[in-house]
Write a structure and sequence with these properties.
2 domains; alpha/beta; Immunoglobulin-like; globular; Rossmann fold; 7-stranded mixed sheet; 9 helices; 368 residues
């Protein structure tokens, strides 16, 4: 193989990223991958230094409680340590500009790392972005329980709710949120940004068929419901208020951390996050079959197809709402692959009439 053309450089070994590569001229230059790694390293440590300096200025810390869940051995209690809670009292008639300002403020968090939190004799340390997880021994309780969490050395208690699947549950449900439960327009970047940034907890619209559909699947709380979304954790309380207003079945939410880690600019991709969350939930309820609910506008068909292949026999039904233009050719192929595995596949612009078919597929009494 001859030398590289003038102006071009080749790595010393094909397919291997190296810190420096040698050109045909004999000079060494830094590879593009190395440059990005250096930029990421600088950004990560700059953010970390800034966060530590800012944390020292925060006198009183607070806990933002997230809804936890249970696995066979533990209650998984979750939350985030912050310098303050950004909570608003929205008005349905307030201006779009005020909505925008309030939404942006939800992302201006003062997260606090290296803080010890405790519950039931168990302690944990908050991570770089303030998140913590407490693993409490599981007992005989079922359904909803509240866990009191404290910050070591500080007065005050935060109540973190936890959902424990009931012993008589017939199946579990994992659902997407945007364009599945809520009207977002995630299939269009422009529509998604406009809807997300100019609405508030009183004006964001939930599909009319979503609350009764999820209530039927839940069967009055008998079957646990979980929500997996690419929305960031900053929106947990915001989404919780929307769910309460609309009467949507409550459940633990698995949202996305958009912060930097030592290895990534943004921790995880859309598909990785959803797929990993599904795997966690399947391990949390190893004896239950699952129903997956999503939409065709944000790659749910691909994520759910992959889950069906990873967990043969665990997924009994996949339900997909068709928002906007509906599924494209690639999504349709993924949907065909789901059905080819013997999984009940239901898809339409609305969920009307789906619950009885799911009940029959599971041999359960959902909604009866």
């Amino acid at each position: 193989m001859g030398p590289a053309p003038a102006g071009l450089c080749k790595p010393a070994s094909p397919g291997v990223f190296v810190e420096r590569v040698k050109c045909h001229t004999g000079a060494y230059v830094v590879s593009k991958g190395r440059i990005m790694a250096v930029i990421h390293r600088i950004a990560f440590w700059s953010e970390r230094t800034w966060d530590r300096w800012r944390a020292r200025r925060i006198r009183k810390k607070v806990i933002a409680p997230y809804i936890g869940y249970a696995d066979p051995e533990h209650l998984v209690v979750r939350g985030r340590v912050l310098g303050s809670l950004r909570r608003h009292r929205p008005d349905p008639s307030q201006s779009l500009w005020l909505n925008f300002r309030q939404m942006v403020s939800l992302f201006l968090t003062d997260e606090v790392a290296d803080v010890e939190v405790a519950a039931g004799g168990v302690t944990a340390i908050s991570g770089q972005e303030g998140y913590f997880t407490l693993l409490l021994p599981r007992d005989a309780r079922e359904g909803w329980v509240n866990v009191d969490v404290t910050i070591t050395g500080q007065e005050g208690v935060a109540v973190c709710p936890v959902l424990i699947a009931r012993g008589n549950a017939k199946f579990a449900v994992v659902s997407d949120i945007d364009d599945t439960m809520m009207q977002t327009g995630a299939y269009s970047i422009a529509r998604n940004l406009w809807t997300s940034l100019t609405g508030n907890a009183l004006t964001r619209k939930v599909f009319e068929d979503a609350p009764p559909f999820m209530e039927t699947l839940s069967d009055g709380g008998r079957n646990p419901v979980y929500y997996v979304s690419s929305s960031p954790w900053n929106l947990h309380y915001f989404l919780r208020r929307i769910f309460e207003r609309a009467g949507l079945v409550p459940g633990p939410k698995f949202l996305r951390d958009l912060g930097m880690s030592e290895t990534k600019f943004i921790t995880g991709t859309h598909g990785d996050h959803k797929g990993d969350s599904i795997d966690v939930l399947f391990a949390a309820n190893p004896t239950l079959p699952y129903v997956l609910v999503g939409d065709t506008g944000q790659h749910d068909a691909f994520v759910y197809r992959d889950a069906v292949l990873r967990h043969p026999g665990r997924i009994r039904a996949v339900v997909l709402r068709e928002p906007g233009p509906g599924p494209d050719a690639e999504s349709l192929r993924a949907m065909e692959e789901i059905a080819a595995q013997g999984v009940l596949l239901l898809h339409a612009p609305s969920f009307g009439g789906f619950a009885p078919r799911i009940r029959d597929a599971l041999g359960a009494t959902a909604g009866s």
